[in-house]
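Design request, tokens follow.
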């Protein structure tokens, strides 16, 4: 953000002398009652209206007198530089009155300037000054103004000058990294500037302990710190014969514990099985023609299998991992929406497929020069929004995961019964979601699990929207004794390279799952593994939450684990 605002007035000794201190060692506050805002007219010995009248009368009187004397001297051929004592006094009076009247027209401006500067300075310093006291046991008095406690240590004089330049707008905030060639220093200076502009402290937001260079140009612009988020571990999740400890970054109490209970039930019942049904990222540009007939011609051309090989060669040149899989077209009047699907290796693949699509569009311009490309994305993809096309056709990784939970485990671990779970799933996840008009939301809380795993492993949290499309099914098997539970997730969008996956914390979580970076032996294997782990974790979460609801334990568990016992009033 390019921050523009007048720099604050630096503190002075006089300002601090205006503070009253009590004799008990407590804070001192600014005494506004004894510090009235000065006015420019306060310097005048007489009221403003009377002074103005005197000088106006004086100015025009002496001007008339001098002009009259000038005319008489011209008529009598008297030299103009010969002046009498009265004429000399008139000249001095004219100059004095002119200077006053010139200043008079600037009084309003000066008044407003002084008032604004003083108000801004008072607001900046309207905090209680705490005297140095080694007795930390004393209670802290309330702050009476805006909290401006500096969030970081004092900076050098050179950095102070840069902060002031950012505040006044002469140095754009976004250019600090390139100008300073020090990402941490740039973040610290930007942080100081933001605090001064907003008048708010960022004291609780950590600055140190983060590699700001690692996010430059790829993860976050104009950083001022980082948010701390706890990471819990659920597991082991027994999936496809392998055990996984699932990292979950969340601030919701009970979530990790609930998923962990689901993992326990799955493990005790022999594990879950996850099957990857489809793997293909999509991008759908929108193009326009003069007529619907012309748009239809391009649609037929793209859907003709004879042309697919040629288009694949053009598309695949964009990356050694991108491989065009299919092209689906939808027409709306004279507008054509072209949905490309391709494999993207271990990357989530949005940038990769976008480059391939651009290559194809450039190629098509040769045979369709009248084609007007409106946008590289026409929302037929569909990215970061609920859409039926993703629910039906899939996007990213399409996974189905299942498990059979024995009757004994349902009773001992999940504290409920198979019939209760089956009935609840039908009335809640199926019928209830249908009544709500849900789109891809036929589940209990798939988004909870997906978001937690996404944040922990460096995925794009916004893609939780379509990645959480999930159909949860439960039915009794083995003569009604055991429970078959499954989740079908058609659009899990994950990657193990690029974006936030390369950050140290997120990379460590991926390493915990054995899915860090790219798989050199089988490109795309790590991303597919991550997708199956997400589905397996969702299965565990669905199983546990549904059991809690069926057993009537949801409210009780949340009251126990999802409510803080801290005395909030004592921390204010």
């Amino acid at each position: 953000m390019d921050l523009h605002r007048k720099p604050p007035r630096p503190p002075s000794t006089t300002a601090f002398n205006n503070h009253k201190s009590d004799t008990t060692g407590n804070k001192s506050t600014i005494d506004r009652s004894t510090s009235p805002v000065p006015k420019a007219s306060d310097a005048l010995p007489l009221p403003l209206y009377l002074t103005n009248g005197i000088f106006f009368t004086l100015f025009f009187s002496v001007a008339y007198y001098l002009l009259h004397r000038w005319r008489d001297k011209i008529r009598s051929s008297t030299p103009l530089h010969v002046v009498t004592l009265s004429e000399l006094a008139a000249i001095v009076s004219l100059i004095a009155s002119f200077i006053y009247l010139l200043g008079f027209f600037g009084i309003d401006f000066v008044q407003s300037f002084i008032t604004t500067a003083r108000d801004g300075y008072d607001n900046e310093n309207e905090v209680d000054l705490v005297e140095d006291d080694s007795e930390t046991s004393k209670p802290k008095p309330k702050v009476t103004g805006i909290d401006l406690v500096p969030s970081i240590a004092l900076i050098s004089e050179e950095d102070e000058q840069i902060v002031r330049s950012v505040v006044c707008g002469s140095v754009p905030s976004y250019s600090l990294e390139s100008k300073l060639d020090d990402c941490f220093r740039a973040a610290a200076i930007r942080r100081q500037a933001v605090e001064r502009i907003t008048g708010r402290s960022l004291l609780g937001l950590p600055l140190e302990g983060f590699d700001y260079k690692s996010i430059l140009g790829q993860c976050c612009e104009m950083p001022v710190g980082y948010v701390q988020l706890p990471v819990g571990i659920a597991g082991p999740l027994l999936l496809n014969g392998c055990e996984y400890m699932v990292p979950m970054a969340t601030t919701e109490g009970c979530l990790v514990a609930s998923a962990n209970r689901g993992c326990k039930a799955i493990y005790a019942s022999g594990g879950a099985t996850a099957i990857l049904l489809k793997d293909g990222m999509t991008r759908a540009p929108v193009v326009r023609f003069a007529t619907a007939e012309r748009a239809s011609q391009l649609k037929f051309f793209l859907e003709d299998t004879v042309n697919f090989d040629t288009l694949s060669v053009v598309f695949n040149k964009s990356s050694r991992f991108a491989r065009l899989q299919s092209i689906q077209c939808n027409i709306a009047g004279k507008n054509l929406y072209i949905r490309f699907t391709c494999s993207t290796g271990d990357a989530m693949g949005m940038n990769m497929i976008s480059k391939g699509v651009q290559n194809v569009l450039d190629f098509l311009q040769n045979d369709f020069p009248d084609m007007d490309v409106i946008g590289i994305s026409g929302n037929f993809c569909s990215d970061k929004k609920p859409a039926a096309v993703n629910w039906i056709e899939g996007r990213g990784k399409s996974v189905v995961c299942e498990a059979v939970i024995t009757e004994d485990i349902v009773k001992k671990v999940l504290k409920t019964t198979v019939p209760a779970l089956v009935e609840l799933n039908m009335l809640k996840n199926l019928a209830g979601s249908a009544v709500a008009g849900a789109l891809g939301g036929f589940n209990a809380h798939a988004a909870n699990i997906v978001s937690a795993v996404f944040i922990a492993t460096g995925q794009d949290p916004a893609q939780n929207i379509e990645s959480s499309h999930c159909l949860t099914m439960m039915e009794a098997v083995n003569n009604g004794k055991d429970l078959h539970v499954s989740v079908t997730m058609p659009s899990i969008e994950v990657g193990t390279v690029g974006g936030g996956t390369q950050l140290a914390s997120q990379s460590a979580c991926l390493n915990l799952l054995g899915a860090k970076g790219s798989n050199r032996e089988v490109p795309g294997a790590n991303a597919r593994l991550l997708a199956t782990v997400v589905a397996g974790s969702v299965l565990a979460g669905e199983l546990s939450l549904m059991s809690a609801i069926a057993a009537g334990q949801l409210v009780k568990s949340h009251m126990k684990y999802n409510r803080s016992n801290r005395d909030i009033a004592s921390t204010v």
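Comment from the thread starter after seeing the answer: thanks! The longest helix spans residues 48-75.
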